C-alpha cells in the first residue's frame, strides 16, 4: 500500500496555530504592561508619608536659609497691640477754655474690656485723660482705681478697638539676674518704642528724688527707659508682662536714662489695684 502523503492542509493549520499563539503572547504582554504601568501610577499618586528625618531636614533648611526674628523682636511683637500712649491734660492757666497737656506716659491693656494699667504719676492731677491704641484709635479714659504709695493706677477708655487683645500677664517669680527683658513704651512721646536689656537685680528699693516716696520689691533692669516709658510693660522672652516700668535712677538733675531702671512686679501691681491674682 503506498505511503500516505501529507495532507495539503497541514502547513496551513500549523501557520494558523502559530498566529494564534503569537497573538496570545502579544496580548499577554500588553496586559502585563498595563498592569505594571497602573501600579507605577498608583505609587506615584500616593503621597509619601513624612518621616522625622524629612521634618528635621525641612527645619534645618529653614534655619539655614531664613533669618528668624530675634527673641527681643518676638517679645515686643507679642505685647505691642496692648501698649497704649497715655496723655493727661489740665486746664490751661492762660486760657481757661482750653486744655494743656500735663503729662505723657504709657499703659498696657490687661483685660478684654480695655482696662489699662499705668503709673499713678502719669495721671495724677489730670482733668482729662486720652489714650491712643496701637491701631491709632483715640479715646478718653476715666480713672478706675489708684494706689499712690505703689505709684500705680487703673484707667478705662470709653471705647476700644474691635480687635483689641490684652497682654499676657506672667510671673516675676521666675526671673533671675541676667534674664533678657524688653521695655515697650513712649519715651518723650515717641513710639511705640522698644528697648532690650537684662534683669540687673531683684527686690530693689527706690526713693523718689524729693525723698517723699519709697518703692520696694522692684525689678532693676538696664533696658533703656526715659520719661514717657512710665507705666509701660516690662516683658520677658516669652512675651509675658512681668513688671510695670516705674522709675529711672539718675544722680544728676537730668531726667534721662543712665542704665538703671526699676519696674514694679506684675504681682505687686495687680494686688495693689485690686485685681485678682494672675
What does it look like?
Among the domains are: 76-157, Thrombin, subunit H (Beta Barrel); 168-272, Beta Barrel (Thrombin, subunit H). Helix content is 25%, strand content 35%. The protein contains five helices and 13 strands. The protein has helices at residues 10-45, 52-65, 71-79, 120-123, 266-272, and strands spanning 83-92, 95-109, 116-118, 128-132, 138-147, 152-157, 168-169, 180-185, 193-207, 214-221, 233-236, 240-248, 261-265. The chain has a six-stranded antiparallel β-barrel with strand order 1-2-3-6-5-4. Strands 8-9-10-13-12-11 form a six-stranded antiparallel barrel. A hairpin with a 5-residue loop joins β4 (128-132) and β5 (138-147). The protein starts with 9 loop residues before the first helix and ends in a 6-residue tail after the last helix. The relative contact order is 0.13.
Q: How would you concisely characterize the structure shown here?
A:
With 278 residues, the protein is an alpha+beta fold. The chain has helices spanning 10-45, 52-65, 71-79, 120-123, 266-272; strands spanning 83-92, 95-109, 116-118, 128-132, 138-147, 152-157, 168-169, 180-185, 193-207, 214-221, 233-236, 240-248, 261-265.
Low-confidence stretches: 1-12
Class derived from helix and strand content: alpha+beta
What would CATH call the class of the domain at 168-272? Mainly Beta
Order of helix and strand elements from N to C terminus:
HHHEEEHEEEEEEEEEEH
How many H/I helices?
Answer: 5
Mean pLDDT across every amino acid position: 84
| Rg measurement, Å | 38 Å
Name the strands of the widest sheet in spatial order. 1-2-3-6-5-4
CATH architecture of the domain at 168-272: Beta Barrel
Q: What spatial form do the alpha-carbon principal axes imply?
A: elongated
Cα-to-Cα separation, first versus last residue: 123 Å
Give the proportion of residues in helices: 25-40%
Write down the oligomeric state.
single chain
By CATH, the topology of the domain at 168-272 is Thrombin, subunit H
* Main sheet makeup: 6 strands, antiparallel, barrel
CATH superfamily of the domain at 168-272: Trypsin-like serine proteases
Q: How many E strands?
A: 13
Amino acid at each position: 500500500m503506498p505511503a500516505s502523503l501529507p495532507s495539503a492542509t497541514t502547513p496551513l493549520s500549523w501557520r494558523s496555530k502559530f498566529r494564534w499563539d503569537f497573538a496570545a503572547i502579544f496580548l499577554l504582554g500588553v496586559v502585563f504592561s498595563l498592569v505594571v504601568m497602573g501600579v507605577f501610577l498608583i505609587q506615584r499618586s500616593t503621597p509619601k508619608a513624612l518621616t522625622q528625618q524629612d521634618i528635621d531636614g525641612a527645619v534645618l533648611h529653614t534655619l539655614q536659609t531664613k533669618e528668624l526674628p530675634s527673641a527681643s523682636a518676638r517679645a515686643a511683637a507679642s505685647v505691642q497691640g496692648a501698649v497704649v500712649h497715655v496723655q493727661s491734660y489740665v486746664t490751661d492757666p492762660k486760657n481757661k477754655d482750653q486744655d494743656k497737656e500735663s503729662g505723657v506716659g504709657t499703659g498696657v491693656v490687661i483685660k478684654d474690656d480695655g482696662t489699662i494699667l499705668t503709673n499713678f504719676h502719669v495721671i495724677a492731677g489730670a482733668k482729662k485723660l486720652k489714650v491712643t491704641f496701637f491701631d491709632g484709635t483715640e479715646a478718653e479714659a476715666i480713672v478706675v482705681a489708684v494706689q499712690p504709695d505703689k505709684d500705680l493706677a487703673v484707667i478705662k477708655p470709653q471705647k476700644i478697638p474691635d480687635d483689641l487683645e490684652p497682654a499676657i500677664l506672667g510671673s516675676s517669680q521666675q526671673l533671675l539676674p541676667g534674664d533678657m527683658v524688653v521695655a515697650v513704651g513712649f519715651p518723650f512721646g515717641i513710639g511705640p518704642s522698644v528697648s532690650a536689656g537684662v534683669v540687673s537685680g531683684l527686690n530693689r528699693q527706690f526713693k523718689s528724688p524729693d525723698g517723699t516716696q519709697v518703692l520696694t520689691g522692684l525689678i532693676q533692669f538696664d533696658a533703656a527707659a526715659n520719661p514717657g516709658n512710665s507705666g509701660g510693660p516690662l516683658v520677658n522672652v516669652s512675651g509675658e508682662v512681668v513688671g510695670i516700668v516705674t522709675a529711672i535712677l539718675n544722680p544728676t538733675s537730668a531726667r534721662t536714662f543712665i542704665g538703671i531702671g526699676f519696674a514694679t512686679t506684675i504681682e505687686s501691681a495687680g494686688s495693689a489695684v485690686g485685681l485678682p491674682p494672675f
